[in-house]
Fold:
Amino acid sequence: MTSILPGKIALEEHFATEETLMDSAGFVPEDHWPELKSRLLDIQDRRLRLMDQHGIERMILSLNAPAVQAIPDARRANDIARRANDVLAAEVSKRPNRFSAFAALPMQDPDLATRELERCITQLGFKGALVNGFSQVGDGDTMAYYDLRQYWPFWQAVERLDVPFYLHPRNPLPAHARIYEGHSWLMGPTWAFGQETAVHALRLMGSGLFDTHPRLTIILGHMGEGLPYSMWRIDNHNAWVKHPPRHKAKKRIADYFHANFFLTTSGNFHTQTLIDAILEIGADRILFSTDWPFENVDHAADWFDAASISENDRLKIGRLNAVRLFKLEASSETERTIAAQ
Ligand code: MN
Structure:
């Protein structure tokens, strides 16, 4: 029996409103839907008991996926995002010492997204935003990725507000997922989520966004969506070739990955993977998370509390990095010292 690390903070933890609930229905077999549904709609009851049982002091909550990102009509996307953010703010206010919030954003319209982010941060006390990959725009079959120029004013606002942006997965649209035809088992967490999100993150890094806005912080779940394992190869590509294809950014991709990204352990409870992530990005940039309710809190916490890493790293990843990143209240003088570094 290993001991539980108390005071953990988890930040890829989802809920749904009645309006977004059905977006999650396809991710489990039909006979599991009643269970997932009840997990998604609960915040103050079973979720809290699980947190108590497994040493999780705080969850930073976010809306399910793809939800707002799958609504091509920007006005409607904005309405649903605002209502979900208001619901979440009310829930967090019931237990502000146990819950915090990430904003859902109507990224279909960069102006509306900027306004909603500002509202959530300055008026509702949210800790950042969590966005579910590209947004569908226009006819619904067009994907807007956030390295595009129209998003740069939005990123300027994110940098000014000084809050992290969690880039959460979604599946590719059917017309752009032909490689998976006949292999629907590869959709979702198995493979397509990671592929989709890793490419989106690389687009951000290669666009030069972080040269213009060097203080941006992007969070990736699932131990970095495979990126730590591939980082060296991305920059090395055929080093003997004189003129390899270039991206627009000034530095190596790895430089942005190390300076502008944090990773979480959500849904990837494997020590070999964690150690690779530590070796690539460092224990100061990894954060514990579960991915409740799509994964089990006990699976995440039991694995993490016993994983073969140093106790110092366990404390950083389980708690201290989040205290620092989200400017949360430190629980001791030692923590205050570490958080101030
Ligand atoms: Mn998730």
